[in-house]
Amino acid sequence: MKKLFSCSVLILFMMGCASSQPLQTVDKVDLEKYRGQWYEIASYPARFQKGCRCTTAEYELVPGKNYMLVVNRCVKFKGSSSKIASIRGRAYPVLNSENTKLKVQFFWPFRGNYQIIGLAGDYSWALVGTPSRKYLWVLSRESFMTTDTYDEILKIVKNRGYSTSRIQKTPQNCDTPE
């Protein structure tokens, strides 16, 4: 019994260490290039996104402010009818992070730690995660992503300490429920 307890504690400790490792971000993010609409290609399932399809995030620079406006939208179906669900928030770049870390606030006073951990040189796709590795999003400027690009991103996901088995692709068919 003692041996089983010791092994369990060791395994839990090792799991805690893996997720507490600092999350490696990209070197720098140009917010002017990052702004605009992003399509969610895949993500870790999140309670607050349950039932969402055609999910997008739109970032807008606000002149003279230390944050960007962010609007997340998705289509939710109930039977054969659909509705657009959306939420507005603010994304605050963390000082001295070269804009790679954002504190995102949808409900005052709570702010989530979002970090840009992968980014195409032409800003055609981005990979965003949280230091806890509980949340992860694969974003693209287009609602479609090639298999080669997606596979390249999955390598980054794994390299950053995330499990690729938890990722689910986001349906992009917005006209019908399934």
What does this protein structure show overall?
- Strand 2 and strand 3 form a beta hairpin.
- The chain is 20% helix and 40% strand.
- The chain is built from three helices and nine strands.
- It has an eight-stranded antiparallel barrel.
- It has 178 residues and is α+β, with helices and mostly antiparallel strands.
- It has a single domain, classed as Lipocalin (Beta Barrel).
- The radius of gyration is 18 Å and the shape is globular.
- Mean pLDDT is 87; it is low at 1-19.
Can you list the strand order of the major beta sheet? 1-2-3-4-5-6-7-8
Counting DSSP H or I runs of 4 or more residues, the number of helices is 3
Per the CATH scheme, the topology name is Lipocalin
Q: Care to count the β-strands?
A: 9
Weakly predicted, low-confidence segments:
1-19
Radius of gyration: 18 Å
Major sheet description: 8 strands, antiparallel, barrel
